[in-house]
Amino acid sequence: MIQRKTQDIAYWLDAYQIDDADHEYIYDLLAESDAPIPARDLALAIIRRRMEEEERFLRETLAQANIYDPKEAYQVGDEIYFPALGFRKGKVTAIRPGANPEHGDFDVITVALEGARKPRLFAARLQTPHKLNRDGDTELPLDKPLFTPEEILAQVEDALVAKIEAHLQAHTDFFVRAGNAWLTADQLIPVNIGHLNIAEALIEMEGKPVTTPKLLEQVELESDMPESIRVFSLDMALLHDERFIPVSLNGQRAWFLRRLMPAAAVEIPDVLRYEPVAYDRSLLNVELLQAEYQVQDEWSDAPEPEEGEVPASAVFHLIYPHQVAGTMPLTPTIRRLLSLGSQDMVAAITLVDGRWGDRFTGWVVPQGRYIAGLEHWYKEHKLPIGTKLYLQPTDQPGEYLLDFKPQRAKRHWVRLATVQGRKLVFQTQQKAINVEVDDQLLLSVGDPSAIDDLRQMVELEGYSVEDLVAMIMPELARMSPQGTAHVKTLYSAVNLVRRLPPGPIFAALVQIGATDTGSGFWSL
Amino acid sequence: MPWKRPTLDTPFHIDWEWWRANESNYRFYLYEQLCDACRERYSVDEDVQAVDWIDPETAEVTADADAWLICLTKHCAQEPHYISVDLPLAAAVFRVFLINGNRPLTPRQLHDHLPWRDARTILRVIGSRKIHYGIRPVVD
Questions:
Q1: Which residue of A has its CA nearest to B62?
Q2: In Å, how far are A23, A63, A142, A148 from A56, measured between CA atoms?
Q3: How far apart are CA B72 and CA A372, in angstroms?
């Protein structure tokens, strides 16, 4: 029996290289296809082709050949194919009597194998039984394939797809990609500036993301071509035009205009940029962990809720960075509520104002862990830092009700943050608040531009988390007769000048030697 | 050559010269190391030290091969308990060298093959003045 090369998993993982024949085969496959082909399918086709080729070689080339059988007698000059050596061909160059009492009288033939520098010795005229004896069987001693192409692919998919994609990427004059699928460069339908201008006008008119098939209803690309290739060609052209941006709409790829999107949907604003900080999480006691859980920060290291049913609604609190950026946090609960999975593309959802019923687009930015597009809504309702907000799905797919709880205007003592020199200072101020808030997170800001300057200084001068906590904690504690401040207030205040989840802030509080006075209050 | 105390990092091997000089019947010792199936295949008095050995898979011939040694490495060594904790330590070391083609190994390296005995014990047995199975330090 022989082991086919294509049945050897190690061959696909290591030795296999795409040769010219494979290159042409892929090109022909793509050229003849009505739709772009994913790299995985190309990998499967290559495996199948190589298996068929090997089978054909074994059947056709070797059917007439002199197959080595140790029982046979050979002459100098005979050409033989060796089944146990992958059917390598060799020529007999010498014969001598063999010496081994176990086998009796036999020959040892010297064989020059093709491609081998040294001759090798094989038994001939062997009377004792051997695995390679064919005993008059005219069939080739082929093994039955052990694995189907699909079974081989299942074992080598990552490595083989990577090899194929690397090859295709290195030949962009032949192949074009969009996502995981590939097409030949020749198949792309030319898309001109006129087509793109029509697409732009259509999206602007709709005022929301539009899918490619919908754009194609107006953008007339060669209608005799298959739709998948028309979609692919338009997608490619839109992708290379800066005016357009791909977004996910109800799980489908759609297109929107960059200029119509809120800035935070296109680029993560500085106030929301979080550089992960290493800290000793074991410093956080149970109360600190509870406070961390309560604020539901999207960058918290708290364990994610276990996968299960999609929650019915989510609650979060407004903190300063989200207020100024016009965003809301994409907490693990909200992520599950939106059924986002692990996608990275910006997604469009419809938000419904829980007060007035207005609908507007929210832009989910998974990379920045927030939803943009709320600036106008925050301003309209004059929501203060610390507002408790609710998000719940409506009965329409991709639509969510965003709300807060109004209450009769109540006068609150609010901490007003101002900048004095290079410091953040606080004073109390009576303010009428008519929405439900978390009193410990409640803050107001005197001059946002001064706060922004201080934020930049903190960043430029590389303040550590301990530096910030040591700067802000005394100012907060000073406002209370007991000389204490709540950890959630500290979290809310630190976030005026640097985006940080509670974990590193609370750990820094412990590290600078603050004392836990109970119920979430700490003193210095 | 004066005897020098070997260490845990001294490479050892089977010194076939020692066998020729001290044990004319080393073939008998070698035969003892064969598994039951190989002993059945060859009789102890059979001269198979330099035969044309035929590979059971490919029928390729290895000229001047010691059939017992090939059997040891290709067949016996594949048996699951060929080297086991039940063997005397010197015999186990001997089998390790037979299987690895007599490639020199230090007591530390031998311990990797015989993890149930620590390297010092291995050194004590094979590094003493008494020679077991011709196992001696490699002399440059």
A1: A121
A2: 20, 10, 12, 16
A3: 73
A contact test, residue of B43, B46, B61, B66 with most A CBs within 10 A: B61
**Amino acid symbol at B8:** L
- Smallest CA–CA distance, residue B105 to chain A, in Å, is 31
Q: What is the pLDDT of residue A165?
A: 92
Query: How distant is the Cα of A106 from the closest Cα of chain B, in angstroms?
Result: 10
CA-based nearest residue to A225, from A200, A195, A190, A274: A190
- Alpha-carbon distance of A109 to A76, in angstroms, equals 8
Residue of A nearest to B65 (CA): A100
Query: The whole model's pTM is what?
Result: 0.59
Query: Per-residue pLDDT tens for A384-401?
Result: 999 999 999 999 988 999
3-state SS, residue A380: helix
Domains of chain A as residue ranges with CATH: 5-62+145-182 (no CATH), 68-124 (2.30.30), 188-260 (1.10.10.10), 301-407 (2.40.330.10), 410-523 (no CATH)
Is the reported ipTM for this assembly greater than 0.85?
A: no
Best of A74, A81, A102 to mutate (most B CBs within 10 Å, chain B): A102
- Interchain CB distance below 8 Å, B48 and A100: yes
